[in-house]
Design a protein that fits this description.
Alpha-Beta Plaits, 8 helices, alpha/beta, 4-stranded antiparallel β-sheet, 14 strands, single chain, Rossmann fold
């Protein structure tokens, strides 16, 4: 597959703003990113690159200078490229997320084996880290869990390893659902069921835990459904948004729907929040 490489140069010292830009680029089809000295490289399937759409995104960043250079990239073996750049992720002294080409580390009680094929969903993003930290707090033995927007399946796999009896992993992206199935198989998971679709495709199913690592607008649109799908005394864990100004907006809406806001976590300005029904 042939790719287009864009070399972005940013005149800013704000890593948070660069993080937001990378997120926006992923929403318009960019698949992987590589940090460089003064910015980052971004890669997109050559047939999907639309410079007009890119310029619309960059118009949001008029407060600082961002420039880019376009390069055409010959067909490469992206699995080999990932092996060169993908690093394991540790969460405290409990979780070790690695690829098959990394050394096994038995000192971590929870080992997650991930086939790294996506720029997001490999465990490196702050929101995934925050959600995984939450899962380590709870005894979810025998519980029924929904992982909404499952990505590569990291949270679903961790939920099963923490004792969940049933995990439904849902995503609108077929690449994500295929990746979750593959990673669930790699981890010998037998309680994870994967479904392609959105919140409207889930019917009247009920859950003890709902995990949603998406973005602010989708979370706000789905909160009423989460309220109806969560069992009494159930836990809602959400992330994919920023501490300011998103947390206050989301928490206010959740409280309107009957949730009790417990507390939140923050990492590099990203936030995750816990709600109780």
């Amino acid at each position: 597959m042939d790719y287009t490489e864009l070399v972005f140069t940013l005149v800013t010292n704000d890593d948070f703003t660069q993080d937001i830009l990378i997120q926006d680029l992923s929403d318009i089809g960019f698949e992987s990113f590589e940090e460089i000295a003064l910015g980052f490289n971004a890669y997109i399937n050559r047939t999907e690159f639309n410079e007009s759409v890119l310029k619309e995104v960059l118009n949001k960043y008029s407060s600082f200078t961002v420039s880019y250079q376009i390069n055409e990239v010959d067909t490469v073996n992206w699995n080999i490229e990932w092996e060169k750049n993908y690093q394991p992720v540790t969460i405290g002294d409990q979780v070790y997320i690695r690829a098959s080409f990394h050394e096994h580390k038995p000192e971590f009680p929870l080992q997650l084996l991930i086939e790294p094929k996506m720029a997001f969903g490999t465990g490196h993003h702050d929101t995934t880290y925050l959600m995984a930290e939450y899962l380590l707090e709870f005894d979810i033995t025998g519980k029924k869990v929904l992982d909404m927007g499952c990505g590569s399946g990291i949270l679903a796999i961790l939920a099963e390893k923490r004792g969940a009896a049933y995990v439904l992993a849902v995503d609108i992206d077929e690449v994500c659902t295929a990746s979750t199935r593959e990673n669930a198989h790699l981890n010998n998971c037998g309680n994870i069921f994967v479904q392609k679709g959105d919140i409207g495709s889930l019917g009247l199913q009920q859950f003890d835990f709902i995990l949603a690592n998406i973005n602010r607008n989708i979370l706000l649109a789905h909160l009423d459904r989460y309220a109806s799908m969560l069992n009494r005394e159930g836990i809602l864990l959400i992330s994919g948004f920023y501490e300011q100004p998103d947390l206050e907006i989301i928490a206010a809406r959740a409280v309107e729907l009957g949730f009790k806001f417990m507390y939140h976590r923050e990492r590099n300005k990203w936030a995750a929040a816990k709600f109780y029904k």
